[in-house]
Design brief:
By secondary structure, the chain is α+β, with helices and mostly antiparallel strands. It has helices at residues 8-19, 23-30, 72-75; strands spanning 33-34, 43-48, 51-57, 64-70. It has one domain: YaeB-like fold (2-Layer Sandwich).
Length: 76
Amino acid sequence: MMKKHYNETEFRKVINLLVNQEQEVLRTKYKDHALQGNWKGFRELHVQSDWLLIYKIDGKKLILTLVRTGSHDKIL
């Protein structure tokens, strides 16, 4: 993350929102949405305009799997 000059504070903020299951904030501010096709079962959000995070939440007990992060053209 540091090599790409990503904002670590913003990343930590998003992780805290995920852990606390703040879906409304994630959906409205970070454009959180379900993915389709080969990525079905995963979700994506925009940490910043061209900084995406792909993740998966399993079950009622939170098991958060951070899958990929990077720019749109690099990760999809």
